């Protein structure tokens, strides 16, 4: 429904007109501990193989990117209520005053192209969505062989973001092949293992590693920093 909000009435939203959407269930509900973590990437209460823990974190990201807010209220044994608030789009205002582009070091500087290689479709989609929202061009592959075909046919690739534990060719082997095509290519490895578990010679200059589960802001900053370092070399 359409609703008029006052400053600070809902989260950090500014005063104005919003569309609100409320979803309620009568399920088992969530404890305060679980509720505090529901927006964290990869957090799930489901058994292994039955959930990625990415659903609500993606909804949160989309909502915030649109200038909105999401709230969740839940009580064990009673159920859960999810409320979304999205700003009303005024076409006349948009024509009269085009929205200024988001500035800051995390945004793509020149629409750089990032190749994302991840065999888990949900994780791959999440990473791609984050990068696209920041202004990057993206290419995607589910395994090393598909990534190599892209590297051979793409006009340009500015960075490789790859899972380490890919089926078949692993991420480190893929990085070696990618750097034959693009010498000095920045490579960010995603891994479910601690960084300390990697051998001392695993990372070469221009390579870095981020451990799952990772914060989406941390991912964005790491990509931005590595591309800026490449430009300064």
Description:
This protein is of the alpha/beta class and 233 residues long. It has seven helices and nine strands. It has helices spanning 32-35, 55-65, 91-96, 121-133, 144-153, 171-181, 216-232, and strands at residues 2-5, 16-25, 69-75, 79-87, 113-117, 137-141, 159-163, 187-191, 207-211. Strands 6-5-7-8-9 form a five-stranded parallel sheet, sandwiched between helices. The chain has a four-stranded antiparallel sheet with strand order 1-2-4-3, covered by helices on one side. Strand 7, helix 6 and strand 8 (187-191) form a beta-alpha-beta unit. Helix 5 (144-153) runs parallel beside helix 6 (171-181).
**SS element count, helices:** 7
Number of domains: 2
SSE order, as H and E? EEHHEEHEHEHEHEEH
Backbone structural class: alpha/beta
Gyration radius, in Å? 20 Å
Question: Helicity, in percent?
Answer: 25-40%
Count of extended strands: 9
Shape, please? Answer: elongated
CATH topology of the largest domain: Rossmann fold
What is the assembly state of the chains in this entry? Answer: single chain
Q: Strand sequence of the main sheet, in spatial order?
A: 6-5-7-8-9
Topology overview:
Blueprint: E1 2-5, E2 16-25, H1 32-35, H2 55-65, E3 69-75, E4 79-87, H3 91-96, E5 113-117, H4 121-133, E6 137-141, H5 144-153, E7 159-163, H6 171-181, E8 187-191, E9 207-211, H7 216-232
Helix pairs in contact: 5-6
Organism: Stutzerimonas stutzeri (Pseudomonas stutzeri)
GO molecular function: histidine phosphotransfer kinase activity; phosphorelay sensor kinase activity
Domain Response regulatory: 113-227
